[in-house]
Amino acid sequence: MADRVLSGTRPTGKLHLGNLLGALENYKKLQGAESFFMIADWHALTTEYESHTSIAANVQEVVIDYLAAGLDPAQCTIFVQSDVPAHAELALLLSMMTPLGWLERNPTYKDQLAELKGKDLNTHGFLGYPVLQTADILLYKATKVPVGEDQVPHLELAREIVRRFHHLYGKEIFPEPQPILTKAPRVPGLDGRKMSKSYGNCIYLDEKAPDVTAKMKTMVTDPARKRREDKGHPEVCPVYYFHQQFNAASVETVASECREAKRGCVDCKLEAAGKLNEFMEPIRQKREIWCGQKNKVRDILAEGRKKASVVANATVQEALETVGVRSRD
Ligand code: TRP
Ligand code: SF4
Description:
Helix content is 55%, strand content 7%. It is mainly alpha-helical. The chain contains 14 helices and 5 strands. Bound molecules: tryptophan (TRP) and iron/sulfur cluster (SF4).
């Protein structure tokens, strides 16, 4: 059988360059008749249930980011998780047979509990996050799941749940999903750490060119290069990462001039910002156009909901029959 692709994005705000290079570029390559890209609003709620922000408004932003980045609704199915109730149904079914110990041992769970200290995440929903994610994947019988490194344990758990389901009910109905890791796993942010919303070090897809340039000017550089005469080490400099990504033609020159102290960091940053802005301009323009076409966005999601529901409902039916909750007649 041909590969089926499913991935999801939590709508916790606008997408940034790290999301674009780390995930969306990968999605774009994988889009074809058998690909599903989902806005995981239930997953956002697992950590945002206390904050009264509008998850629905964030869903709109993410869809527009998807479209502006080049996902084509004629080639893939774009839909919102809560629009397809089958996600909640299969998650509940899988929760019956998922051992608590598997969820408590999940490294992502432990990391997130420690990291998101301001939030009370001692909830049923948050512990069950990977069960819901497994349901997302199994509903479409996805074989390939493009994700970041941090999601690998969730995919492992998904395969364990599949094996347990098959073992318990004696019928193999789900493929074991495999992760597809991105080639640009770690996009640096302004402070040199991984670009992440929670670090406040992001460049967002909707930012205007002068704002991007202003942010780039604040980016950290090689810490060993305190004065203009000091020789630099481009490989440790986040600005150089942007030259590698967006200034391929001059990247060797940038590196050698940096190493020999023949270029200043201010000029180097301006050059990187110029190239980054060239890359971002078409995305920004498409974003604006989509922002003015809210009805069209609504139609795309309605169509996505229809296409996703057909597949997902059939799988829920099959799973409930296999378990013995429903009978065929
Ligand atoms: N947990 C994923 C993340 O935080 C988002 C997600 C939800 C997902 N459901 C999914 C990813 C299904 C892949 C497949 O990035
Ligand atoms: Fe980084 Fe460029 Fe400065 Fe070298 S010259 S340290 S690559 S900003």
